[in-house]
From TrEMBL:
InterPro entries: SH3-like_dom_sf, SH3_domain, STAM. Residues 25-90 form the SH3 domain. SUPFAM superfamilies: SH3-domain. Gene3D superfamilies: SH3 Domains. The keyword Ion transport does not apply. It holds the Pfam family SH3_1. Residues 1-21 are annotated as: Disordered. It comes from the Eukaryota. This is SH3 domain-containing protein. PANTHER family: JAK PATHWAY SIGNAL TRANSDUCTION ADAPTOR MOLECULE. It comes from Favolaschia claudopus.
Amino acid sequence: MQWQGQPQPEERQTQGRRKTADGRTILHYVRAAWDFKGEYQDELDFKAGDIIAVTDTSDKDWWSGELLEASKRVPGKHLFPCNYTEPVQNRYEFE
């Protein structure tokens, strides 16, 4: 039985999860280990130490995400090589 106002299963999965500026669900965060300058229009440019909110990991080499620092974001740029990053253990250190 479904109670009125109770979230649907697909809503439960994303409840409490953060979203990017354009509404994509953030899976986790990574820190850039090295600088990267994209060669193509949709590749994210970043500097070592930048924090990236990861939104898609379906490709084993190239992930999708958004720079956490709003002033560094460029619309349409979201792909980055995941091997240039390292996992962030505690997201609260930068929020």
